[in-house]
Amino acid sequence: MKFTGNDAAERSSVEAVRQRLVRYAVKLVWNRDDADEIVQEAFRIALTRGVAVTASESLPWLLRTTGNLCLNARRRRRPVRLDEAAVATLTSPGEQPPDAESLERLRAAIESLPAQQRDALVMRAMEQMSYEEIAAAMELSVGAVRAHVHLARRALMKMLGSNDA
């Protein structure tokens, strides 16, 4: 990658985008190594297509591309047990990690959601993105994103046995 101007600031910006994309990918594929490879592939595609990875306008494109690559990776392989890096990514520092059985149930429930519902829910609940940011990343209307998140939450509550639906 060729940096211009303030190299340190550009490298920092690229690294921040890369870390955000890796966190997002881990939540979709549940494996840190696979997530790193997927994000690397997303960056390779961005560079071959001339997408500026440091521009904030390109973040929706990068999120959409990463999400699509995650979906492709999930189609090619069978799910495996969560690795420690994935569990660490899901919890905040100092927070008690959930037990493995609960995480497995949650992962299976999330994986069983339709792709658009799963992506919208992950971006909203786990990445704390606004509905507008999600709409831009998924190329949908804000209303459609809200509907996908709502349907995903209801489906998860039903699958996980919550009576709060």
Strand content: under 5%
Proportion in helices = over 70%
Mean pLDDT: 82
Secondary structure tally, helices: 8
**Oligomeric description of these chains:** single chain
Largest sheet properties: none
* Low-confidence regions: none
**Total number of distinct structural domains:** 2
Distance between the termini: 49 Å
Shape: globular
Query: How many beta-strand elements?
Result: 0
Rg measurement, Å = 16 Å
Secondary-structure element series:
HHHHHHHH
- In terms of structural class, how would the helical and strand content be classed? mainly alpha
Report on this model:
The chain is mainly α and 165 residues long. It folds into 2 domains: 1-92, no CATH class; 113-165, Orthogonal Bundle (Arc Repressor Mutant, subunit A), CATH 1.10.10. 70% of the residues lie in helices and 0% in strands. It is built from 8 helices and no strands. It is globular and about 50 Å long. The mean pLDDT is 82.
Give the key terms.
single chain, 165 residues, mainly alpha, Arc Repressor Mutant, subunit A, 2 domains, 8 helices
